[in-house]
Amino acid sequence: MNIKPLKETTFLEAVAAAIQHEKDYFEFYMNTYEKLPPGDTKELFERLAEEVDDHIKFITELYEQAEGSELPNLKQLTAIHKFHDSTLQKLMNKVERTIAGPGSKDAHEALELAIREAENSVSFYEKLANKFEDVNIKSLFTKLKDYSQNYQSLLETELNGLDQSGSGQGTFFGTNKRKKWLRQSLNRKKLRLRKNRRLLQNPLLQLQLQRPLQLKL
C-alpha cells in the first residue's frame, strides 16, 4: 500500500492521530499512577491523566468549529480511512516509544521518563505546526505543543522538588501551580454539575437522554 506524503495529511487524519496520541498519554499516566507508592508524584500523574479529557474535548471542538459538523465516529471510519496507517500516525508512534514500556514504580525514574516524553512531544508538535499550511492543522499542533510544554514544566518542578527534599516526596501538593490546577478542576466539575442539573430539569432533554448514546471515541 502506498503511503501518501506527510504534507497531504487531511485535517481529519490529523485530528484522529492527535486523539489517539492523547489516549496513549492517558494510558501511560494512569499506568504510572497505579504503580507509584502514595505521595505527591503519584497525585501529579493522576492529575495529568485527568487533563487528557480536556485535551480531547479541545480537539473535538476545534474540528467541529472548522468543519461545521460533529466529529464522526473515528472507530467506524478507521476501517475506511486506515488512520493507524497514516504517515502522521506512524511518526507519532515513533515519538511514543519512550512511554511504550511497562512504566516504573520509582518516582524519580517515572518523572524522568515523562519529562523526556514531554520534551519529545514539544519538539515534534513544533515541527509539525511548521510543516503544514492548513490553518486548522497548525492550530491543532500548536495547542498540543502548549499542552506538552505545560506538562513538562509541572513534571520538572516535581522532579526538582524530589531531588531537593531527598525524601522521595515531591512538591506538587505545595506548589501554587497545583493550587491553581485544583481550582480549575473544581470549577470544571461545578460547571458539569450545573449542566447536568439543567438537563434533568428539561423534559425534552430527558427524552433525548433516554435514547441510545453513540460514542465518538
Write the layout of secondary structure elements.
Layout (H helix, E strand, L loop, with lengths): L10 H25 L4 H28 L6 H8 L5 H9 L11 H25 L3 H31 L10 H26 L1 H7 L8
Helix pairs in contact: 1-2, 1-4, 1-6, 2-6, 5-6
Protein name: Rubrerythrin
InterPro entries: Ferritin-like, Ferritin-like_SF, Rr_diiron-bd_dom
GO molecular function: metal ion binding; oxidoreductase activity
Task: Tell me what the structure shows.
There is one protein chain. The protein has 217 residues and is mainly α. It folds into two domains: 156 residues, Ferritin, core subunit, four-helix bundle (Ferritin), CATH 1.20.1260; 35 residues. Helix content is 73%, strand content 0%. Helix 1 packs antiparallel against helix 2 and helix 5 runs antiparallel to helix 6. The protein is elongated. The two termini are 26 Å apart. The relative contact order is 0.14. The C terminus is likely disordered. This is Rubrerythrin.
Backbone shape: elongated
* Count of helical stretches: 8
The description of the largest β-sheet is: none
Amino-to-carboxy terminus distance: 26 Å
Amount of beta strand: under 5%
Reading off the top of the CATH hierarchy, the class of the largest domain is best stated as Mainly Alpha
- CATH third-tier fold name of the largest domain: Ferritin
Helix content: over 70%
Order of helices and strands: HHHHHHHH
Mean pLDDT: 76
- CATH superfamily annotation of the largest domain: Ferritin, core subunit, four-helix bundle
Give the class from helix and strand content and strand pairing. Answer: mainly alpha
As a whole number of angstroms, the C-alpha radius of gyration is 19 Å
Instruction: Give the number of DSSP strands.
Output: 0
InterPro entries: Ferritin-like, Ferritin-like_SF, Rr_diiron-bd_dom
Organism: Leptospira borgpetersenii serovar Pomona str. 200901868
GO molecular function: metal ion binding; oxidoreductase activity
Pfam family, one: Rubrerythrin
